[in-house]
Amino acid sequence: MRNGGGEGGEEERIFVSVRVRPLISQEIEKNDHSKWEIINNNTIILKNNAPDRSVVLPCAYTFDRVFGPNSDTRQVYEEGAKEVALSVVNGINSSIFAYGQTSSGKTYTMNGITVYTVEDIYEYIQKHEEREFILKFSAIEIYNEGVSDLLSSDNTPLRLLDDPERGTVVEKLTEVRLRDKCHLEDLLAICEDQRQIGETSLNEASSRSHQILRLTIESSARHHDRDSSSSLAATVNFVDLAGSERASQTLSAGTKLKEGSHINRSLLTLGTVIRKLSKGRNTHVPYRDSKLTRILQNSLGGNARTAIICTMSPARIHDEQSRNTLLFASCAKEVTTNANVNVIMSDKALVKHLQRELVRLEDELHYLGSTHTTTHLDELKEKDTKIIKMEKEIRELIQQRNLAQSRLHNLLSSVGDDQALRLTEEYGRLMPKPNAHNLYEDDHSSRHWGESIQLSVGHQPVASEDESSISQASGISYHSPEFGISKCRFPYVNDSYDRNHLKSENSVNSARYFPRNTYQSPRIPQSQSGSLDDQCKEVRCIEINDLKKKADESSLLLDDCDSLLPMTFEAKEPSLKAGNSFGLALQNQVKMTQTSDNLMKPVPDVLTPRCANSQENPACSTKSFCLEDIKHNNNTPTYSLLKDFQRRPENVSTGNSSASSGRETEVRSRVSQKLEISTREELKVEDVAIASEDKLRARGSKNAYATSIPSISNHVEQLEEVPQSQNQKQLVQNQEMHQNPNENYKVEEAKNVASNETLSSSSESPSQWPSEFKKQQREIIELWDTCNVSLIHRTYFFLLFKGEPTDSSYMEVEHRRLSFLKRINESGTVASSLKNLQRERAMLHRRIQKKLSSEERNNLYIKWGIEVDSKKRKMRLAKLLWTDTKDIEYVKESASLVAKLIGLLEPELVLKETFGLSFMPRECRRRSFRFNLMFSSR
Ligand SMILES: Nc1ncnc2c1ncn2[C@@H]1O[C@H](COP(=O)(O)OP(=O)(O)OP(=O)(O)O)[C@@H](O)[C@H]1O
């Protein structure tokens, strides 16, 4: 029902009066008369104002009213407080203060003022029967900066709360609804009893606290339309302040001294507030510096009418205090307040008001919803949709990867000598377009997230004869953009070879160059094709969807190739559509650069061929892919392809070369740029994958982290695929060699190419590799230490990879994955990997006893600075293993010792390809351990 309101208040000054009490008995005894003289109702002067003083102080003080010793309290009330006090019945807040030094008569005055006001209020109520009044009373005491309820026996200090409408309110303050005047008088008596009073040398009953008696009056019309009319509500405060005092005068000590200091401090704040207010409201007013000013904030310069009665003693001993009181009073009279009539709305009026407010707020809400909120929600929805789409794509890729891994495994296990022989016989057979269902026919997905790049292997159904012929002649099979899967073959066609012959016969292509991670499709006789459907397996590159954009760009670029190359090829053999096929091959190669097993190698300058034409290098025959040229260059597959690309138009051009050369150059340039971009973006893609892992971890759930671990494993598995595909390639090449000795030289060339591929992927500059290897080795050793990698893994890796050019891939992948692990460890998995490491050291410690003779052990203790007779020397030795990562000799010794302890005598027998599998931090310590032991027992 309540609602603060007001009717136009006007600023008015605080009404300030001064009351000089008569001399009390003890002052009379001392005959301590002062020279204060009240010259009229408004002015008080100090007679004989110290002419001997060097500083002349003001001697006349003027106020709204000055009461002399002969004025009784009734007069003081009537002339100094009544008007203000009774404002409360009209809905205006009011406050009457008594301010002055101790024993100056504040309590004496305020008691009278309160009684008279109450009398008048009740008299007013009686006179205004048309209105109904509700009176409520509460009483606050502030003692030693603690607020208490004088109407409650509970002395627990009360809290002050800030109410946006009512200002500072005292929490849990008792508010008693008054029955009648007598009820109020009883309550006043209770307050008097409750108040902290003590005896000082100046006052037998000195008030040691500030007292605020609060009377709230609500009134409303009694007979009229009560529901629609307004009510008034206001509060009058009767504030009897504790008196300022000098400890020397009051002879205070102990508790009294503490009380006095609190009193003086709060009065000082009151004085500061008054002084600030007297200078205007532009400055900060420190209401909150004391409980007193905080509670009375409204009465001091706020929505209230205020009267201050400053009391003073006429005794000479109090002259200085009296002067201070007058100075305070002088400031107070400059302070203005702005009192309003506080109107309380009726229920009806309040409902109407609230309805209007509701409509207004709804309008605001609608406006906000139509702008910011809606937009924000749309953005969120859009992002959610993208996330769902990406998650679906990732799942599909993982399915493909798992399927391919499964088939690669099948291939490796099923391809025996006979099979290999047959496959070699069917060498060159083209595969038809892949069946979408084949790619999804089984699902070994383990729902790994955060995949970035995958290699895959899959079955291919057999192509039709026509397709086979055409594609075979062109040397390119097909690609399936719908799955982002590409497959390509690269023919070797020598000088003597007739392209038409190539189209009509199913023999010939004895040696082919395979790009990395592709597998040469064997030519399969028609009679066996059906049975070999499942045996024809090819390694294919599966792009991740994140790279689609690049693939599309590549496609656009290759369209250029397609449009360029037919101009050169079609003149001689239009039916081959070699240009288009070559475009596909190039596209395939571009995609190859986007796969992980290229290991983000910078693409060499493909437009700077070693030999520009056949004259410079006779080995580069016309109308052929120059294997010699490829072999002698440190070519990546991409490089080889592009060199072919450079050479081919020149070789087969029939006169249009000049017309096409400009466009060709442009296309080459664009190819080069795209490839470089691809490489750079490939790096970004992995960053995205890592960021994806980070996000999953950042979600904070254990599940998120758990899903990130398999993802790392997948990442590790990519390494496994590299050598596998290489092995497979090597296997087929060996089979070819065995099948057709006449073409062994070509197979040999192909092998050399493969070797060169590895070399080229290992290092851009072989001459720099040794130093690069040492640098990477040092960093890897540091990272092992940082990531708490298994000592056995370190040992194997360290002993296996000693700086051969082919070690480059492993070094790089190890380095990158350790960096990746380091990031994970930084997010809190160090503890678990450290525990694993400690267990491993414990295992090695036990093996020291078993594997080493007493003499060997003692030699080691001496060498490693451990006292031979010391306790726990074996454990100390185990703890020293692999700890100094800076000293390479120390690392070597650590590796050597660990190798001996785990029984690793011939590390070279362990395939390097097995690496990338063993050093992930594992959830299950035992499994991890068993794996290492199993590994070590090989
Ligand atoms: N106008 C007055 N006429 C006669 N006696 C008075 C007058 N004012 C005060 N006294 C007397 O002076 C003494 C001190 O008065 P009072 O206790 O009201 O002072 P106070 O300012 O409240 O002191 P304190 O701050 O220590 O509480 C009392 O004995 C009181 O009766």
Automatic annotation (TrEMBL):
The lineage of its organism: Eukaryota, Viridiplantae, Streptophyta, Embryophyta, Tracheophyta. InterPro entries: Kinesin-like_fam, Kinesin_motor_CS, Kinesin_motor_dom, Kinesin_motor_dom_sf, NACK_C, P-loop_NTPase. GO terms for cellular component: microtubule. One of its GO terms (molecular function) is microtubule motor activity. Gene3D superfamilies: Kinesin motor domain. It comes from Dendrobium nobile (Orchid). One of its GO terms (biological process) is microtubule-based movement. Residues 651-662 have a biased composition (Polar residues). Residues 13-335 form the Kinesin motor domain. This is Kinesin-like protein.
